[in-house]
């Protein structure tokens, strides 16, 4: 399945602007990993109480009409649920098994450039809404009043579970927390272990190649993004112990560093470059970059060490595993 760069960038922009940032000074009761606990307690009426980023919420023990908020589509589908609607942030390579995308491809999208479509949500009559809420990179800060107001609007429509994630890399564990609430926690934990085992195996098998190289993960549309270790793809590289390019090595507050095409020489030190690729093998990012002299002059490109990766923005461990598998294949050619 191929998506235009405009469609994918629009979805990312929505998730990173409308649903991002917004912390207020203070403390919270979330775990140190940046995700809210997902403990559950059975109630006398058959409902279940779960811990969320905004306190405890009672939800149906067997939800049937689920709306997937940001990051909620993959956990819902993997739990055997077909959502009524999604945030529109899901693509085929959002799933470890790309065929699972069929379940949500044509569903209504309830996130607009102006925010959530509350009227449509009311009409859908969900019995549960689930997703994550971004809390910035400081887990000690409370979520902002705007975030709390947004939650209250959603929760007034249907029980709403929002799991906090601090930084894009934390979305993987937020997905596990959602899976546990939806009843597929064992599967999600198995995916996490498979990912961790694969990372350990690749680090061992390529213990010489990894430290001898420098890596940059880039995307291109109107400019170039070099992703940091707190981003989706950057966290995978960091887990592998892959040294980052100097321009982004110390970036720990933002998902990446933005460069103009003329500034691409700032990743000259990268001996390996990764860029996003669709599951059909096409890459709009590469099409954009190949028209730039600064790209074709990069040492990694000249050495044929620039590789396309699907699942470039993994917010769950199933998708992250696919990334590691592809990185392993690229390491074989070094």
Question: What's this, in brief?
Answer:
With 334 residues, the chain is of the alpha/beta class.
What does this structure look like?
The protein has 334 residues and is of the alpha/beta class. It folds into 2 domains: 5-185, Nitrogenase molybdenum iron protein domain (Rossmann fold, 3-Layer(aba) Sandwich); 197-331, 3-Layer(aba) Sandwich (Rossmann fold). 34% of the residues lie in helices and 19% in strands. It is built from 12 helices and 16 strands. It has helices spanning 5-17, 73-78, 118-124, 145-157, 171-182, 185-205, 209-212, 232-239, 284-289, 293-296, 299-302, 317-331, and strands spanning 23-24, 40-42, 48-52, 55-59, 66-68, 85-86, 111-112, 115-116, 128-134, 142-143, 160-165, 215-220, 224-227, 256-259, 272-276, 306-309. The strands form 5 sheets. The chain has a 5-stranded mixed β-sheet with strand order 14-13-12-15-16. It has a 4-stranded parallel β-sheet with strand order 6-5-9-11, with helices on both faces. A hairpin with a 3-residue loop joins strand 12 and strand 13. The chain starts with a helix and ends with a helix. One of its GO terms (cellular component) is outer membrane-bounded periplasmic space. InterPro entries: ABC_transptr_periplasmic_BD, Bact_iron-sidero_bind. Belongs to the bacterial solute-binding protein 8 family.
């Amino acid at each position: 399945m191929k998506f235009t760069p405009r469609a994918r960038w629009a979805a990312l922009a929505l998730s990173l602007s409308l649903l991002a940032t917004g912390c207020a000074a203070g403390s919270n009761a979330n775990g140190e990993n940046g995700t809210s606990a997902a403990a559950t307690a059975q109630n006398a009426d058959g409902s279940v109480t779960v811990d969320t980023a905004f306190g405890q919420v009672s939800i149906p023990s067997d939800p049937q009409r689920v709306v997937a908020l940001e990051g909620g589509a993959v956990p819902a589908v993997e739990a055997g649920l077909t959502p009524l609607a999604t945030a529109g942030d899901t693509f085929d390579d959002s799933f470890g098994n790309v065929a699972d995308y069929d379940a949500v491809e044509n569903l209504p999208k309830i996130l607009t450039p102006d925010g959530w479509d509350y009227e449509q949500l009311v009409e859908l009559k969900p019995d549960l809404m689930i997703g994550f809420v971004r809390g910035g990179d400081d887990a000690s800060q409370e979520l902002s009043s705007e975030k709390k107001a947004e939650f209250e609007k959603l929760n007034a429509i249907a029980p709403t579970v929002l799991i906090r994630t601090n930084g894009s890399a934390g979305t993987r564990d937020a997905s596990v927390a959602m899976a546990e609430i939806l009843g597929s926690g064992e599967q999600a934990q198995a995916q996490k272990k498979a990912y961790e085992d694969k990372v350990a195996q690749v680090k061992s098998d390529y213990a010489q190649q990894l430290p001898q190289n420098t890596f940059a993960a880039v995307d291109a549309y109107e400019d170039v993004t070099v992703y940091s270790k707190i981003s989706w793809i950057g966290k995978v590289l960091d887990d592998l112990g892959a040294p980052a390019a100097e321009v982004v090595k110390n970036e720990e507050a933002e998902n990446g560093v933005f460069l103009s095409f003329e500034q691409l020489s700032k990743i000259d030190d990268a001996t390996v470059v990764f860029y996003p690729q669709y599951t059909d093998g096409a890459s709009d990012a590469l099409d954009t970059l190949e028209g730039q002299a600064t790209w074709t002059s990069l040492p990694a490109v000249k050495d044929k060490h620039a590789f396309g990766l699907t699942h470039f923005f993994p917010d769950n461990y199933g998708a992250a595993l696919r990334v590691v598998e592809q990185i392993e294949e690229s390491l074989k050619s070094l």
